[in-house]
Amino acid sequence: MRIDILTVVPELLESPLNHSIIQRAKDNNIAEIHIHNIRDYSEDKHKKVDDYAFSGGAGMVMRLEPIVKVIEFLTSERTYDEIIFTTPDGDQYDQKTANTLSIKENIMILCGHYKGIDQRIRDHFITKEISIGDFVLTGGELAAAIIADSVIRLIPGAMGDETSALTDSFQDDLLSPPLYTRPAEFRGWRVPDILLSGDHKKIEKWQEEQAYERTKRLRPDLLKE
């Protein structure tokens, strides 16, 4: 998989995309991540990429010329399965979307900034608009990092145990069951006896019941879906 991220603040993406599972996936040639500074495509002598909105009001808008240039440069080299724009008014991101994106070959992510981007970019280039929640960030870089992380970890070979991702929360519209590790007893707090029984069928049934109960208590909306 190849992910190209378009941003005006590439420094914000350095740490999140260069450690842990993502770094191992890159080292093992399972995934590629390329960061493109939109300012490099600006013809302004000061490398400005924003301007005032025609509608007036507070806040600046990202100009379309440098964004068009970088998008057309990249699309001239390869075909993209999705060109994503990270925006508060996009579709709510969830595990199903991450699963769908994980089987794509090439993805481009445009990070919003300032007050937003020129609508013509959204009209003519963007194929999917994604929001990671009902709140506003300074820019879309952190959202892009979240999307990249959640997608890459699902690619076969990215994780040491490929079955681990299949038991994550939300994969079956359920939250994960409670987890325990050694010691079996600490300050009188005991691990449930069923987990120490060695009976894998009973343990699996207990986990399913616990996952359902936790979901019912904490996220009943998932069960309605």
From TrEMBL:
It catalyses: guanosine(37) in tRNA + S-adenosyl-L-methionine = N(1)-methylguanosine(37) in tRNA + S-adenosyl-L-homocysteine + H(+). InterPro entries: Alpha/beta_knot_MTases, tRNA_m1G_MeTrfase_C_sf, tRNA_m1G_MeTrfase_TrmD, tRNA_m1G_MTases_N, tRNA_MeTrfase_TRMD/TRM10. S-adenosyl-L-methionine binds at G112, I132, G133, D134, F135, V136, L137. Coiled coil: none annotated. CDD domains: TrmD-like. It is found in: Cytoplasm. Keywords: Cytoplasm, Methyltransferase, S-adenosyl-L-methionine, Transferase, tRNA processing. It comes from the Bacteria. Gene3D superfamilies: 3.40.1280.10, tRNA(m1g37)methyltransferase, domain 2. The keyword Transferase applies. GO terms for biological process: tRNA N1-guanine methylation. One of its GO terms (cellular component) is cytosol. GO terms for molecular function: tRNA (guanine(37)-N1)-methyltransferase activity. It holds the Pfam family tRNA_m1G_MT. Its main location: cytoplasm. Residues 1-224 form the tRNA methyltransferase TRMD/TRM10-type domain. Its EC number is 2.1.1.228. Homodimer. Belongs to the RNA methyltransferase TrmD family. Specifically methylates guanosine-37 in various tRNAs. PANTHER family: TRNA (GUANINE-N(1)-)-METHYLTRANSFERASE. This is tRNA (guanine-N(1)-)-methyltransferase. It comes from Labilibaculum filiforme. The lineage of its organism: Bacteria, Pseudomonadati, Bacteroidota, Bacteroidia, Marinilabiliales. The gene is trmD.
